[in-house]
């Protein structure tokens, strides 16, 4: 088999995704842009009028923005973690999902930190964080971790793009505008897929994948420390860092499964994203769900058992004011995925995806219950004030900006997969090259 | 497609319902379910004025926890002797169901032959609520607090006495008394004792920080006494040990500069990671250069082929 011909075949197979934008895609993109425009209006309103237009007040200073921040950043960290691990696995299955995970990783780490900026009341003083950093503060550690992780993820994503960009550059049949061809040429960095170049690229990608795993663990931990190093009831917990890692992986794997399902359905990639992908991802989700359930139980059980007055107050708040949210986040959000994923008969693609949707929504609510009720039950309760100053309720501005984050995520995802194939062509070629080499060696041994 | 749409809409509505649900319970607001609690108290304050306070609360007969303060009810305070009523003041109850009046030290009270003062608080009946009245009969007790260092010993003493009709001081025979130190939000008890023959004395051995200037305020209180009600007296003295902190704060994370180990760890981590990024970029440049060389070689071969032809 001639590999160059095979490359051409594969480019031809994926070219509709890269060359054309269907009517559905156009409508979808238009819809996403419309949401972003509403978000932009909400943002301008927030800048002009201040945090008055949000539900955040002196008592509850963090709301859905910080929850979205944790949610997106955790998805990114878990994406980096899984992507790094996948790189070390020698299975052809990984090729179909690796790019999806890498794109999710980078987009989440770009969108997540924007939410933290929305939390800041005085954006004009943002540069003080860099001019006068307090090294002892977990917030400073988090800023450093996020910036480092962002760079790391970008470099890692770019490394995985290079061979495909070179294939697209060398293919004259691809009908894309000239600027895109020039961009492919520029970004492919003269990569010719020579053995030396291939070896060098594999070496640095391997090092970077180790690095992103380590970075993800460090950044995850630092994010958890923002909460657990305070003395607030519900946050000051020694298991918060590993709990965050497990919870992040739970939501991350869930989002990956949902993305796999949507991409498979939307781009008709049933040939590449097969049942085994969902089954394996579902089993990973099952193991993580068990760990997550264990950590959640351990966290709340110790609070309930120790019976410290402020922890008891917090638990009372969770079981009264936030009863249904608590039940959904910590019971339905865990038990439903566990049941679906545990029973072999239920492990269909649709059921696994449904389990992931429940898990992701449960996780988002879990974040909400970590942040808001704690702030509503401080050590020294606020006195003689209006209920809206004591209790938090998100406003339309916050929901609009939250949806804008989700819309931006989808929009950028669509734009990226219009630029490079969602299934790495170079990965398919590498697998086929390995198979060829194996066959040649076998023939050689037989003839000798 | 329709069933899918229905399914997703259904799931979304459940989630939205979870997000916005409020747990509210219906309450029985019928007044017949409530019993009125009308409680009257008198507090003689440190400036010798008298605080008269009424607490007016409706209490659910079935649910003891359900208490509703009676708001904006007009309470009249009287000093009564036989048929003679002297109005001391009127006040309306607050949102907490509390009505307060302060009677100045200069107020001359009507007293009986034994020196008893009859104080009465009255709420006059309205269409919804019946009349409520409560009285207390007390004697006017004087409390004198003295804070002095006797032979370098911080000594707190009180004298308690009443004044008879001839203006003679009559020492209080016996009553329980408590001593407190005033703090920002509440008060801390430092001594419990019993006055006998009109006097009580104790040594203050405790190390109390006091305020920024080292001042502490000692409060002497006779509380809920059947004959005298509540009497408070307080005095401030410079006995605090505020500047005598010997234990230094050892948590370096709260200090102005971070501990050195933190700089070292952070630097090692950052240098390690960013050096790796740099190493990756250098290798990328090498890949680019190798590709360039490859291109040039190809061009030379093509050129040679052309020349040969």
Mean pLDDT of chain B comes to 84
Report the radius of gyration of chain A as a whole number of Å. Answer: 24 Å
**What percent strand of chain B?**
35-45%
Mean pLDDT of chain A: 89
User: What's the overall geometry of chain A?
Assistant: globular
Q: Which H/E pattern describes the elements of chain A?
A: HHHHHHHHHHHHHHHH
Give me the Rg of chain B, rounded: 39 Å
Annotated CATH topology of the domain at 31-139 in chain B: Immunoglobulin-like
Order of helical and strand elements of chain B = HEEEEEEEEEEEEEEEEH
The level 1 CATH classification of the domain at 31-139 in chain B is Mainly Beta
Number of domains of chain A: 2
Q: How many DSSP helices of chain B?
A: 2
CATH fourth-tier homologous superfamily of the domain at 31-139 in chain B: SOR catalytic domain
**N- to C-terminal distance of chain A:** 23 Å
- Specify the structural class of chain A: mainly alpha
How many beta strands in the DSSP annotation of chain B?
16
Any guess at the CATH architecture of the domain at 31-139 in chain B? Answer: Sandwich
Helix content of chain B: 10-25%
Tell me the quaternary state: heterodimer
Task: Considering the chains and any ligands shown, give keywords for the structure.
A: 448 residues; mainly alpha; 16 helices; 78% helix; 0% strand; globular; B: 309 residues; alpha+beta; Immunoglobulin-like; four-stranded antiparallel sheet; elongated
